[in-house]
Amino acid sequence: MRTIDWVDGAIELIDQTKLPGRLEVRRIGTVEELVDAIHSLAVRGAPALGVAGGYGVALAAKQHGGDADALAAAVRLVTTARPTAVNLARGARRAAARLPQGFDAVLAEADALRDEEIAASAAMATRGADLLTELCGAAPKVLTHCNTGALAAVVGGTALGVVAELHRRGGLGPVIASETRPLLQGARLTAWELDQLGIDFRVAVDGAGPFLMARGQVDVVVLGADRICGNGDTVNKVGTYAHALGARRAGIPFVVVAPESTVDVDTPTGADVEIEDRDGAEVITGVPAVNPAFDVTPCDLVTAIVTDRRVIRLDRGERV
Ligand code: MRU
């Protein structure tokens, strides 16, 4: 089943706010509904957001085809619905470039984005599983953060796709899914996906990660990205940076898995990325809270970046 697709003239997506309790498919027929789904994280994860961006422009073309101003405003709404994952704006812009050729061309471009993400997931799984085996030997003990599985892509996923591939090869050790406060993408979504895949796992609170690494319960940290900057700085779900520091201190590899569509060489460093600040009420109600949704892991803490086309060994001085 695809996390997001275009079906009979509208977007259909798995509503991730309902998981793990209910697997519910939501039909999205307007740009406003899509933007709401993006804000609420009903659809989330960098590759899935890229596809949402493409299909969002298709919705805009369908809704406002004859009205240039309304169309431009709708495309802008889609493009800027969330700022951090480069895939969203990139997907929307790519589809929008086909607007002069009409709705069918826009939809074809969005379909191509979807198909590219499906192919990228498969390529990353193979490359990433090969790399983890090379770095850690057989059956590595893995810690992952946030959700990087099929739910974050279309099928397959990024880092969790690598974990699944190792499992398929019979070469996966114990898996720890970092809870991912405050919206629990790890405890709700990654746990659900691992369960569906028949992979044993345990959930840990985010703060336990570095200690579990220090205690020898993790051989490798493998996770995704929302944007990889020109210098290799990696922007990903908040909590990633702490895991990278823990991995460095424990002397274990820290591997980022993301499609080329997440690599943004036009953004030189992590300091140049707009980090989404979300409502403090997601963290706790009744007291003030600060809620950055992402953080920046400096490139010198990243061992390697695996994309659908290459493995970049930052630890060996290779460049993005
Ligand atoms: O706020 P989210 O759930 O959209 O954040 C998602 C992440 O940070 C993922 O780790 C990232 O998009 C990589 S997904 C393959």
TrEMBL record:
Name of one Pfam family that matches: IF-2B
Domain of life per record: Bacteria
InterPro entries: IF-2B-related, IF-M1Pi, IF_2B-like_C, Initiation_fac_2B_a/b/d, M1Pi_N, NagB/RpiA_transferase-like
MF terms in GO: S-methyl-5-thioribose-1-phosphate isomerase activity
UniProt entry keywords in alphabetical sequence: Isomerase
GO biological process: L-methionine salvage from methylthioadenosine
Family: Belongs to the eIF-2B alpha/beta/delta subunits family.
Listed NCBIfam families: eIF-2B_rel, PRK05720.1, salvage_mtnA
Protein's recorded name: Methylthioribose-1-phosphate isomerase/methylthioribulose-1-phosphate dehydratase
